[in-house]
Design a protein that fits this description.
heterodimer, A: about 450 residues, alpha/beta, 7-stranded mixed β-sheet, 5-stranded parallel β-sheet, about 20% strand, globular, B: about 400 residues, 8-stranded mixed β-sheet
Chain lengths: ~450, ~400
Amino acid sequence: MTVDVFDLTGKIAPPEARYDVVVVGAGSAGTAAAIEAAEGGRSVLLVDENPVPPGMMGTDVPLFYGGRMTAAAANPARMVEAIFAANPLLETAFDAGVEVLLGTCAWGLYRNGPAMRTLPGAMLGLADADRAWMVGYGELVLATGARDVVLGFPGWDRPGVMGAQALYALLTRYEALSTRRVLILGSDRLALETALLARAHFIEVAGIVEIGDTVRAPAELVAHVVAAGITIHTGTVIARAEGGIDGVERAVLLRDGIEIVVAVDTICLAIGTEPATELLDASGPADAAIRLVGDCAGSGSDRAAIAAWSRAIGAVAAPETIVCQCEEVSRADLLGVQPPRYLDRPIALAARSLATLGHDGPVDPDQIKRLTRAGMGACQGRRCRTQVACILSEASGLSVNPATYRAPVRPIPLKLLADWDEVAAMAAGWDVWFGIPTQWTPYAKIGTDDEAVGGNMHV
Amino acid sequence: MSDVPAALPASAPLPASATVVVVGAGVTGLSAAWWLARSGVDVVVIDKGIVGWEASGRNGGGASHYQSPLFAEEQRLWPQMDELLGYPTEYQRERIIIQRDAALLDHYRAVGRMCSAMGYRVDDLDSAQAQAMVPLTDATCLGGIHLRFGGHANPQRTVQAYAWALQDLGGRIVQHCAATGFATAGGRVTGVETARGTIACDAVVVAAGPQAAALLAPIGIDFPVTAARAEMIVTEPAPLMPIGGVDGNGLYGRQTLRGNLAFGGGPHEWIATTGDGPEARPASPLIRSLARRVAEMFPRAAHLNVIRSWAGIVENTPDGRPILDRVGNVTVATMSGVGFGLSPASGHAIRDLVVDGECSFADIAKLGLARFADLEPDWREQRGWAAQAADTGLAA
């Protein structure tokens, strides 16, 4: 059979290492899974992206840190120490023979399936501060945890607005939180436990904000919070965050039409969490070799409660309130399905909106993503995709899914992601396009003796 | 792709009839429909999904195709498209091709001379000139060519612009409605069948990409195309270069107006598709080889983060050239993987075929189906273009 030398077959190198089990995420669930597999005699690799380089944390990778890291976050050795101190099971994993790689993220999951038959096997893309590489696995355990649902109120793009998972990580895993006084949004277990955690670390809790009339957390937990003297504002919404060059200085709350100003340097979104399943989302459905454990295996927080918060914030937000920080997309731009601000907006565009797009058929979040650029920025949609879906759902009256994730699901520098050690066939079988010489024959030459002139010249 | 819950309402009601039905809301079908609507033709476009969702909306965005008989029309139209459509396409003029390899540089210099001979100005760039024009490269760039024609646009924004411009002219688009066959009478197509009913029509345009072959076979039209997957990557934004359309080092692509570097190239994979289109559009670890070549081409941008990758499914004909032809009242079109940039002109040509029976502005006779009259049934295998079977390469 003829071989197309420009076909991908044989060009993707096999993974440079293969383990019986690869575990992504060295939290309690991932570490326990790694230990169990190693004790069962299997070869195990356990990777965790923490400590995350400080530059990455600045772009909210992987959590919504909101710029409230201390300088300690820039000291990798100290950060590694802190991680071991926070998770004693890691020592056990070492002793059990688990290969543990910290500061190593998993950015892509690749498997043969529909429309892809040429891989030499399933493989996971990893990267640390120095290089990227692929590993193979017999079983892949995803223990990637959960991330905060982020909803953008006016001023949420100021430093100091952050997520509860990020606050938890900076306090307990890194001991690197710069917050002195925090306001917490949400009243579920997550919010109240965050308040108590902050208090236990001598951070002043200026209050807890709940849009509903009742606190959502269990009574016992509420009692602890009340006993700690923490104010819970029910029937209240965050109207905006105000501040200066160092970020948030005040939160302005709204209750029954009356503004309440609370002096804080941090506003913590503890409204809900969602499973951090972007590796799988970008790759396709799970298969028998993939297992999810811990928080990433759950369904996340009550969607109705998140939707209620989104509506409440939408009621106080202005049309110009930013939804996507990276691409500076406002609510009005999103709902109008308007192009980014660096493009002209001809008159015809004023007649176009989410509503007119809806006439053409069900609203597709990826179509809106591409048209508005909301979710297309350097944070890879981590900060805004859920709220974009909430806003689109509210406006359309339909259930709109969040836009899809794409690999690499962590931002990886070109030179680091690059394969500098390709198989020889890659360069030998590389063409700009398909490598079909007749495709580029100038039309006038087709069917003449000069047909071959020009060769394969993609322009 | 994200799934939209089935409970959502279907798109607009299915029209009972139209003068022309265009099957396929890719860039070629939409442009054809827009040109037809501009001529006052009552046109309906149907698509299995949403507008521009396959390769039409996710390609390199180039608009500089010297090899095509539609080249002159492509060059004439692009600078006007934002105004003609009424919506932004992000079209930007001119292109640069740089190289780090002396033989490749010579090769592209020859391409430049050929274009110059056709009356389209191309300037040679030495290394210093190339570095001045392409600030993200460095002294490893040996030189290049500067095309004083052509350019690039944003694919998704452009397909949407066609769709909206078509609607503004009264054209109708029915999404999520795949064509399943044709109603015929007296040797002519009288309607396009879908799961939601039949749209009666006087003429049909099939611009259905890889799906066209299975659709056309039952009415006796052998339409030789086969599908493959191609991949691209995109970085976070870099400072804008004077000309964003920079190719080279085995890559095609562009710097977007936002500043992102979006580039593709390299090996493809031949795949099987169904009547509903590709089952998936996965990217592969090939993105690492793309990242390497982008880093080599733009050393001063090598620190930039790659933030996305994606794949698109495109069809190719046996010779890689378009098919633009009319059989009875059926006009068939594929641009064989090079359709985006040529779309302003291909739509015009298709409009002419449908309305006048021949292209008014260019000789396209060599793009007809007749050239495949003696094509052997195993033409895919002869070229190594057959999709691999599902059970190969699956060992973990």
